Amino acid sequence: MISGFSSALCVRPVVSFSNTIRGVHNHGRVTCLATSMSSSSMTVARDAEYELESRKYELLNIIPDTQRGLVTTADQRSTIEEAMVVVEGFDAGKEIDLSKLDGTWRLQYTSAPDVLILFESAARLPFFQVGQIFQKFECQNESRGGLVRNVIKWSVPRLLEENEGATLIVTARFSCVSARNIYLKFEEIGLQNINISDDLQAVIAPAILPRSFLSLQILQFIQTFKAQIPVTSPERQSVGGLYYLSYLDKNMLLGRAVGGGGVFIFTRAHALIC
Q1: Start and end of every Plastid lipid-associated protein/fibrillin conserved domain (predicted)?
Q2: pLDDT, tens only, 164-221
Q3: What is the DSSP string of 248-259?
Q4: Angle between helices 17-62 and 74-88 (to 10 degrees)
């Protein structure tokens, strides 16, 4: 029994102290290397994020003097285009994230003729003002599309409140047709949120007289008026358009209307719109 126990003891592998120390040392070296690689990756990610935010800031810093695209020179348009391409490069090839797209976006700049004509009209006509313009996407729980509302705040001086006198809404359905392209199918045009000026209210119901039931009814009708005009019918096909979302993150949206329809620069709007 003793000899058998002795033999078993002799064949058991012997763990040397030096090997143990070497294993601990190597494990420490691997841990240190992993920590170093992780730290290096974090540094690279931080640098990339800083670079992106700097490029976005440069882009937004170019456009304030353009009056949202109304007043631009050829050099300015070229500079804006170059700055857009740089920012777009950070998001190239990624599929549209509808959870990021969902929400309200404020227009900062465009070269789209159908929007610039509104700005040009407001600049020429003393009785017409164009306020803020928004795009409101509703697609939080959708996978391949949703609803988008183009919201235009406008006014008629002395009749409506300045810049916020009324709201024009163009509603469209959109569907994702590729990784970055959406197709818009317009459904209706609506007019709502009419806020008449103090001058007009004074005409309808003079301040020196008690407001009659009729005058109050007129004021209430104007303020709650809402008109919706469909742009589709059984006899005609809906107007549509292809829109390329060239960059998207939590606070910036860049887009291009396919077919030479112009570019758009939006930033996230946190206020409740319409």
Answers
A1: 56-266
A2: 788 899 999 999 999 999 999 989 888 887 777 566 566 655 554 455 555 555 556 5
A3: E-SSEEEEEETT
A4: 160
With residues binned 3-state (H G I as helix, E B as strand, rest as coil), the percentages for the chain, rounded to 5, are 40, 30, 30
Residue 56 — φ and ψ, nearest 5°? -65, -40
Angstrom distance (rounded) from CA 18 to CA 12 = 18
What is the band of 4 on the pLDDT scale with cuts at 50, 70, 90?
A: very low
6-18 residue pLDDT tens: 333 333 444 443 4
Please indicate, yes or no, if residue 144 is contained in any of the structural domains.
yes
DSSP state of 144: S
What single string gives the DSSP state of each residue in 60-124? Answer: HHHSGGGGGGTS--HHHHHHHHHHHHHHHGGGTTPPP-HHHH-EEEEEEEE--HHHHHHHHHHHH
Check: pTM over 0.85? Answer yes or no: no
The count of structural domains within the chain is: 1
Q: Which two tokens stand for residue 253?
A: 């949206």
Domain for residue 54, yes or no?
Answer: yes
Range of the domain at 110: 45-231+239-268
70, 123 Cβ separation under 8 angstroms: yes
**Any idea which residue has 């857009």 for tokens?**
84
